[in-house]
Amino acid sequence: MPYRRIPISDEGRLTALRNAKIKADAVGAECAFSAETKARLETFLPQFDNELTERSTSLQEQTTATNTHVEIEAKLRLYVSHFLQVFNFAIARGVYVPQDRVYYGLTLNQEELPKLSSSNDLETWASNVIDGEVVRTTAGGSAMANPSSAEVATIFDEFKQSKMNQTSKKDAYDKEQEDVDNMRGTADDIIVDIWDEVEFTFRKDTASSKRRKAREYGIIYITRPGEEPEPEGGETE
After folding, report:
1. Which residues 6+ apart lie within 8 Å of 6 measured at CB?
2. Cis amide linkage into residue 147, ω under 30° from 0
3. Secondary structure (DSSP) of the chain
4. For residues 132 and 112, is the Cβ–Cβ distance under 8 A?
5. Distance between CA 190 and CA 233 in Å, rounded?
6. Rounded distance, CA 221 to CA 215, Å?
7. According to the model, what pLDDT value does residue 231 have?
8. Would you say the C-alpha torsion 189, 195, 201, 206 has a positive or negative sign?
9. Model confidence over 128-170: pLDDT tens digits?
10. Which of 105, 148, 180, 228 could form a disulfide with 128 if both were Cys (CB 3.0 to 4.6 A apart)?
11. What residues pair up with 221 in beta bridges, in sequence order?
12. Alpha-carbon distance 108 to 116, whole Å?
């Protein structure tokens, strides 16, 4: 025999509540669940719908901010690595001396690039490039180019701004998710009350007729493994 299943997703909850209201509005005084439950439904449904919409919007904004930050981070990683590679090439050509590497936090004979995989590593080495170039040129060294530290600094500023924006959008989404979490229990309570009352109203019908009528109020019945699906109009028992 098919069994009743309460929605487990927020979208499923919203659909169940909407279907119950649509049916209740259509039948008016003949509604199969109580006026008290209908009043709770009418108060709660628009609030829940609005919270889900706000959460969805917030998630889209977080996703956009994250994608933007990933792009800027990749660009900064490219510029930092190119700066250090070009600087090492210049040492090989005799433009700079190996001792100049220490200005950027590198060891004297370090020709390989430092680790730039994590965001924290990238921030550290971007700062090393920018600050080290100031100290080195102040000491009389000629400025680096292709890229310059000014170019690195510009992208680093974009990186820090995008990181702040990403964090802000994530915090906003977490808040919206928390708001939905806090409403989920009430949504389930209202759905269970509606479904219990509807099934009680049709309790004297045959089981298949009761389920057919209950489905019109949004109640979900699941066929057990091995069972034949019920006909659209309900089975004869």
Report:
1. 16, 188, 191, 192, 195, 220
2. yes
3. --EE----SHHHHHHHHHHHHHHHHHHGGG-SS-HHHHHHHHHHHHHHHHHHHHHHHHHHHHHHHHHHHHHHHHHHHHHHHHHHHHHHHHHHTTSS-GGGGGGGT--TT--SPPP--SHHHHHHHHHHHHHHHHHHHHTTPPPP-SS-HHHHHHHHHHHHHHHHHHHHHHHHHHHHHHHHHHHHHHHHHHHHHHHHHHHHHTTTS-HHHHHHHHHTTT--EEPPTTPPPPPTT----
4. no
5. 27
6. 8
7. 65
8. negative
9. 999 999 999 999 999 999 999 999 999 999 999 999 999 999 9
10. 105
11. 4
12. 19
Phi/psi for 221 (5° steps) reads: -115, 135
pLDDT at 180: 98
Q: Which two tokens stand for residue 200?
A: 């009680």
